[in-house]
Protein: Glycolipid-binding domain-containing protein
Organism: Amycolatopsis keratiniphila
Amino acid sequence: MSLPATASWLHRDARTGLEVAFFQEHEGGWRISGATTAVEDGESWFVEYAITVDAGWHTRSAEISGRSASGARRTVLESGGDGRWRVDGVANPRLDGCFDVDLESSSMTNTLPVHRLGLAPGAAAGAPAVYVRASDLAVERLEQRYERIGDRDFAYTAPVFDFSCVLRYDRHLLVHDYPGIAVRLS
């Protein structure tokens, strides 16, 4: 599936900000570079990322840097595509079974599991992800689930946050509308 050269999102409701991402074909997969700047609960932060996915949309690496009032941070996530992860060079078995990276700061990262899973209409699947917090780049496991309820609509749930919504995607399967979080600008 082709992707546009770039996409952007306006973050709203939960936070105020903007995200811009750039897509480049890379070794049969994609390299996605982007940044988000936002104000959330009165705190300003920015996060920059470079994520590499293979041809099957398994995340292979993510280089993430950010800054908030608590200071500058950087973390590097690496996987062989087998669901095992190294965080800053150290194996992290708590993340075993995760094939995607989900950045709290990013709407774009909800694109990764939708491409990887390739769900048929009516099908659903769990998609645990390596979750990276925006303010301090803390890394944790996030259990989440996607159900394809239409051509480009997916019911999304993240039980730990008691959150569910219908994510709407465009023809490239990039998030178009993330209720309460962001809307696609371009």
About this structure: Residues 6-184 form one domain. Residues 111-117 form the longest helix (7 residues). The mean pLDDT is 97. The two ends are 18 Å apart (CA to CA).
